[in-house]
Design brief:
By secondary structure, this protein is mainly α. The chain has two domains: 60 residues, no CATH class; 67 residues, no CATH class. Helices cover 39% and strands 5% of the residues. The chain is elongated. The structure holds flavin-adenine dinucleotide. Flavin-adenine dinucleotide binds next to helix 1.
Length: 156
């Protein structure tokens, strides 16, 4: 059984760390070459920062190459919980950031010619019980009224 991401088999060149010794000087050291570390590295390097990334396995070893590849709006907290915990202004600001992040990702993929079958097809939440469905209806109202985000709810 493979214990590493199967995506790595599709690469022509292995992405193992290129150096084992550290540079004498660096402006910024990033630990971990997943999406967080690599994105930070790209944006800071573009801003003229000298960046060093330390990766203990290989580039893209962690969750970043093993996830479902879904790019969804919203946070781990439900829209209702977000509102309760942070108040309207902050909750809406957080939620807006998640929408901006999708735009940002699309822009990034275009800019770097990354062919990853990116498709803005929306997200699907399926209710397993009538109670779940009622919860979705309440969330839909909240998303529309507070977050100004339109969603569609249907019963089959
Ligand atoms: C099964 C699964 C499905 C998911 N599905 C989705 C999805 O559909 N959509 C979505 O947006 N998110 C999804 N996620 C979440 C998403 O994958 C993570 O939020 C994201 O990959 C985190 O990126 P990261 O760079 O912070 O961490 P990682 O990608 O895990 O990278 C961390 C890196 O740091 C390295 N490292 C760790 N410790 C050290 C150390 N001490 N020294 C040097 N290097 C170190 C690791 O080897 C690794 O390469 C999913 C996660 C999982 C597990």
């Amino acid at each position: 059984m493979k214990t590493y991401s199967c995506w790595l088999d599709t690469l022509e060149n292995t992405l193992s760390a290129s150096k084992t010794e550290l540079p004498e000087q660096t402006d910024l050291t990033i630990i971990g070459a997943g999406i967080t570390g690599l994105t930070t590295a790209i944006f800071t390097a573009k801003a003229g920062v000298n960046v060093t990334i330390i990766e203990k396995n290989q580039v893209g070893y962690g969750a970043s190459t093993r996830n479902g590849g879904q790019t969804l709006a919203g946070l781990k907290l439900s829209p209702g919980a977000l509102l309760k915990q942070y108040g309207k202004d902050q909750a809406v600001a957080f939620y807006r950031e998640t929408l901006k992040a999708i735009d940002g990702l699309e822009q990034f993929l275009k800019e770097h010619n990354i062919e990853c079958d990116f498709n803005r097809a929306g997200g699907l939440w399926a209710a397993c019980t009538p109670g779940h469905y009622q919860g979705f209806a309440a969330a839909q109202t909240l998303l529309k009224d507070v977050y100004q985000h339109e969603t569609h709810l249907s019963r089959r």
